[in-house]
């Protein structure tokens, strides 16, 4: 009798162990994250309705066949072309391949005044020619992204350049580097004539104002190391109090920051001014950067 009882207990124990192991087994579809356990029985079916109990009317009755639909005699409609607006809104792609910015007409006006970027029609509407001209302008002055959109940065740069008065700089007989601190532009003169057209710059930020005045380049180095700020200053041309011209190491059009008094330049402009300058080159700074 004891032998029969022990055998029954052993069979029951094996059944419990097997059932328990099956319920807690690792699910290879869970990805090993430990976040998912075994789903309750019937959960998947409940989610799809496949496990629902059939109603009383479903027992023993065959499902009637669905009637065969008759072919339609209506002609197949012709595809229609999407409607296009004559005056797209800001940021809407146009046939020119460029999105139209909110400052389209103003940018066209300034680019037409500046010249040198291709044909521009001042009408406030994007065209293939306008698109190409704006892209060329953005690429020249390091504006990102180069997409031909007349946005705020493109307008700001175009307006500053178009309104720079090169005659305000009192040039010497030789080469003179001129900086308009108010408009944040820089250009070069020789014998009173412009030899480098106005381009963009960024000078000292608040607390590090670049002072107006007349100076001269007194030291040059194609790659100067800044000890206090631990950064390389390519095409360095010093003119006063540790301040000088050099290629920028950050995005020039980020107005939330500025230099510690230096005149930051785009790469191409820094190279050009290095080629034009020498020790003794006259430096004239006028105006004052807003906010300093």
From TrEMBL:
Active-site annotation: 246 (proton donor/acceptor), 262 (nucleophile)
InterPro entries: LD-transpeptidase, LD_TPept_cat_dom, Peptidoglycan-bd-like, PGBD-like_sf, PGBDSf, Transpep_catalytic_dom
Source organism of this protein record: Micromonospora saelicesensis
UniProt KW keywords: Cell shape, Cell wall biogenesis/degradation, Peptidoglycan synthesis, Signal, Transferase
Protein name: L,D-TPase catalytic domain-containing protein
Ranges of residues in domain L,D-TPase catalytic: 175-286
Matches recorded under Pfam families: PG_binding_1, YkuD
Pathway: Cell wall biogenesis; peptidoglycan biosynthesis
Region (Disordered): 30-104
Signal peptide, first to last residue: 1-25
Bias-annotated ranges (Low complexity): 40-51, 81-94
């Amino acid at each position: 009798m004891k032998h029969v009882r022990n055998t029954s207990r052993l069979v029951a124990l094996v059944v419990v162990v097997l059932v328990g192991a099956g319920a807690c087994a690792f699910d290879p579809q869970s990805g090993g994250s430990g976040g998912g356990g075994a789903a309750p029985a019937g959960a998947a079916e409940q989610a799809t309705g496949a496990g629902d109990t059939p109603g009383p009317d479903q027992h023993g009755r065959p499902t009637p066949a669905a009637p065969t639909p008759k072919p339609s005699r209506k002609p197949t409609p012709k595809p229609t072309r999407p409607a296009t607006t004559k005056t797209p809104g800001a940021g809407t792609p146009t046939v020119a391949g460029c999105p139209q910015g909110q400052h389209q007409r103003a940018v066209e006006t300034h680019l037409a005044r500046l010249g040198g970027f291709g044909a521009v029609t001042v009408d406030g509407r994007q065209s293939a020619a306008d698109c190409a001209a704006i892209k060329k302008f953005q690429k020249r002055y390091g504006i990102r992204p180069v997409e031909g959109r007349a946005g705020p940065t493109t307008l700001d740069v175009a307006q500053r350049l178009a309104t720079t008065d090169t005659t305000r700089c009192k040039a010497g007989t030789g080469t003179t580097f001129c900086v308009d601190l108010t408009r944040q532009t820089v250009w070069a003169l020789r014998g009173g004539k412009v030899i480098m057209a106005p381009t963009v710059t960024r000078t000292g930020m608040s607390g590090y104002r670049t002072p107006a005045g007349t100076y001269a380049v007194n030291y040059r180095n194609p790659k100067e190391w800044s000890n206090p700020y631990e950064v390389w200053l390519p095409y360095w041309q010093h003119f006063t109090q540790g301040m000088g011209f050099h290629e920028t190491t950050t995005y020039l059009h980020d107005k939330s920051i500025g230099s510690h008094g230096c005149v930051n330049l785009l790469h191409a402009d820094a190279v050009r001014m290095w080629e034009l300058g020498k020790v003794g080159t006259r430096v004239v700074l006028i105006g004052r950067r807003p906010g300093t």
